Amino acid sequence: MKSSPKKKTEMDSEFQLTDEELISRFQAGDEGAFEEIVNRYADRLLNFAYRFVLDREEAEDIVQDTFLKVYQNRHAYREIAKFSTWIYTITGNLAKTILRKRRNRKLFPFSRTVSEDENKEVEYPSTERLPDTKLEGEIEERMIQQAIIKLPEHFRTVIILRDIQDLSYEEISNIIDAPLGTVKSRINRARLRLQEELEHLRR
Amino acid sequence: MMNCYQFRNSISNFIDEDISFKNRQAFQEHLKECPVCRKIYNSILTTRQNMLNFPKISVSDNFKLNLRNRILSDRKAASQPNSSKGFNLSRIPSFAYGFAVAIVAVVVVFFILQSQSRNNSPDNLPPVVRQKMTQSPAQQPQNVTPDNPVQSGSRPPQYTSQQTQPLIDDTTAADNPLDKPVEPALEYKQNYEDKIKTVKDQR
């Protein structure tokens, strides 16, 4: 089926809308704007959540919960902060809740799901046979991911946001609700600590 | 000239180009001269590059469908608030469990203390003794006349229609130790003393 040129130009103009404009449209009752937000952020948030919890299903649940919260609390957003900061904060908080639950399950081993969790191996994307250079990259990725997991939560958050999600210092500062100076020193310490963890893993 | 400590604190600032011209020069000088710091710097750069190249994962095909279903069910739940009424364990706050356990503990301690105090009361006499105690009032005559009052500790006297109740309650009179008959041992002692007295008089 051929799409009409009018519709295409409408879509193009909609695509150029900023996140803040989209959320304000959604607040006004435009459900299509919400769909556009989902299209823009689903994969980014999934990658962020996945690097946090290292479980694809859980990461997808976190992203679903994030969008559900955005849908339910659309009027809570005020244009004093960037929309990306707001949505990343929601995802980060949900991911931390999942990690806290996991820790609690470890603390209380009578919990029903602990054995499932312990037996569950850490998931990594793509398990197909790969050429040598790609395989090396895969091994390196696993090692880095293991090192990231070993980092304390506050270091892990900033490393993922800065070095994987490539967010700016200002955005990270807003997401984790910490002063810019704290963010800078925390990122530096997190990078040094990550090297120490990698050294341990390579031995 | 920068030392190793200052160099390590400035690595992120240098990588993210957030460093003054003067410090940049000092940083580069130290980088040339110190092989240990150079190794750390290079490994941070490599790790960062690897992290930026991590494969990106995408949401599953049914992600949007699941999200739509969740939003619809959420809307339904919001429009029918009464349907969610009823008992649900998940609604009970976690502190309520602790509070309930504390109350049960207090009740158990109360009962334990009470049972310990009962051990000292006559109720805890051996069953044979208790049976005898319960039997003794039954052995008393059923129709008690005013001349034959019931001993203390037994049931109150029962009067027939022909009998009139005495003005003075004989049951309470019987409780008076002065009105009690002399014990046989005392009587015997008294007789014995009298006999000794008469023998002494005869001498």
Structure description:
The complex is a heterodimer of chains A (203) and B (203). Chain A has 203 residues and is mostly helical. Helix content of chain A is 75%, strand content 0%. Chain A contains 10 helices and no strands. In chain A, helix 9 crosses helix 10 (180-202). The longest helix of chain A has 25 residues, at 83-107. Chain A is globular and about 55 Å long. The model of chain A is unreliable at 1-9 and 111-120 (pLDDT under 50). Chain B contains 8 helices and no strands. Chain B has helices at 4-15, 21-33, 35-52, 63-79, 94-118, 127-139, 170-175, 184-202. Chain B starts with a helix and ends with a helix. At the A-B interface, helix 3, helix 4, helix 7, helix 8 and helix 10 of A face helix 1, helix 3 and helix 4 of B.
Top keywords for this entry?
heterodimer, A: 203 residues, mainly alpha, B: 203 residues, 8 helices
Summarize the helices and strands and which ones pair or pack.
The complex is a heterodimer of chains A (about 200) and B (about 200).
Chain A: H1 5-15, H2 19-27, H3 31-53, H4 56-72, H5 83-107, H6 114-119, H7 132-150, H8 153-164, H9 169-176, H10 180-202
Helix pairs in contact in A: 2-3, 3-4, 3-5, 4-5, 5-9, 7-10, 8-10, 9-10
Chain B: H1 4-15, H2 21-33, H3 35-52, H4 63-79, H5 94-118, H6 127-139, H7 170-175, H8 184-202
Helix pairs in contact in B: 1-2, 1-3, 2-3
* Secondary-structure element pattern of chain B, one letter each: HHHHHHHH
Overall mean pLDDT of chain B stands at 77
Termini distance of chain B? 135 Å
Q: H/E series of chain A, N to C?
A: HHHHHHHHHH
Structural class of the helix and strand makeup of chain B? mainly alpha
